[in-house]
Design a protein that fits this description.
Structural class: mainly alpha
Shape: globular
Distance between the termini: 24 Å
Order of helices and strands: HHHHEEHHHHHHHHHHHH
Radius of gyration: 19 Å
Number of strands: 2
Strand order of the largest sheet: 1-2
Number of helices: 16
Largest sheet: 2 strands, antiparallel
């Protein structure tokens, strides 16, 4: 299996679908431009790739418990729409995070942030639009494909994106800014603000693929470790990374008095915990026979941005 080729296929399929979803719509031109600027402006597409890969990993496994009557095309088409939806949710969160009221960042992925190009009001509206579009897309997929597994996948994503997930973590992050938090609070912030949506990508993909019982439980365990480890690496890179590589300023967390895994646990423990979580994640994917996910996890583990 060629990791790079498989990932490129996923990303190409996603880009084509995202572009088609934004084409020939009756948006006011400025909101279309603001949405397209961020949604089609590059990025790793990690979350949608994880969702598609988890779906296919289940479909390819003889012990997953899925019904042989389920159409592979049906499952992939459902997963593709959900993958696009989760990228919309992720993009909206970045647009809002970059605003002066939260992180006050001027650059994202090596370009000016959305509010620097279109103004704060339009950036807020672009984020709101993307969030609504994501739910429209998932609900439409449930109706159009008439595939029952879409509904629990939608619930998984909605819960992880809302007050019990990403929004809850963001609230605590903002609420505790400028104060020193304990380890329990820091873990709550990281597990909800960033890790929740990564976990939801994998779990929702596995659900759409048809996973259940022990098989789904193992996917969830792998996703738990991947989500938290990804945020820990972001915290490490904010201290040790290079701004030209990251595409955003280094040290912004410290300047904005953000609580991070490094500030609470220290750099050395952050590195140890990061390694442990990735090793556990990769082991779980190998147990599942999810070769691409295991290889992709190793690639993410060693990332520099």
């Amino acid at each position: 299996m060629d990791l790079a080729h498989k990932k490129d296929v996923y990303v190409k399929t996603l880009e084509e679908r995202l572009t088609a979803l934004l084409k020939n719509k009756n948006y006011p031109p400025v909101i279309y431009d603001a949405i397209s600027y961020s949604l089609l402006g590059g990025g790793k597409r990690m979350r949608p790739v994880l969702l598609l890969a988890a779906c296919e990993a289940v479909a390819d496994d003889d012990e997953s418990g899925i019904s042989p009557e389920l159409s592979e095309t049906l499952r992939f088409n459902c997963a593709l729409d959900f993958a696009c939806a989760i990228e919309m949710i992720h993009t909206y969160s970045l647009i809002h995070d970059d605003l002066p009221a939260i992180d006050n960042d001027d650059t994202r992925r090596g370009r000016p942030t959305n509010h620097k190009v279109f103004g704060e009001a339009m950036a807020i509206l672009a984020g709101d639009a993307l969030l609504n579009m994501s739910y429209e897309l998932m609900i439409d997929a449930c109706i159009r494909h008439q595939y029952l597994n879409c509904l629990p996948a939608l619930v998984e994503i909605a819960r992880s994106a809302g007050i019990n997930g990403m929004i809850g973590g963001q609230v605590m992050d903002v609420h505790t800014e400028g104060t020193t938090v304990d380890e329990e609070t820091l873990l709550y912030i990281h597990e909800h603000k960033t890790a929740a949506l990564i976990k939801a990508s994998i779990v929702a993909g596995a659900i759409i693929g048809g996973a259940g019982g022990r098989y789904l439980k193992t996917f969830r365990q792998a996703a738990n470790h991947m989500g938290l480890a990804f945020q820990i690496k972001d915290d490490i890179l904010d201290v040790t990374g290079d701004s030209s590589t990251l595409g955003k300023p280094v040290g912004s967390d410290a300047r904005n008095n953000k609580n991070t895994y490094v500030s609470v646990f220290g750099l050395e423990q952050a590195r140890r915990d990061y390694q442990y979580m990735w090793d556990s994640c990769i082991q779980h994917f190998n147990e599942l026979g999810a070769e691409f996910l295991a290889a992709y996890a190793k690639d993410l583990r060693d990332r520099v941005r």
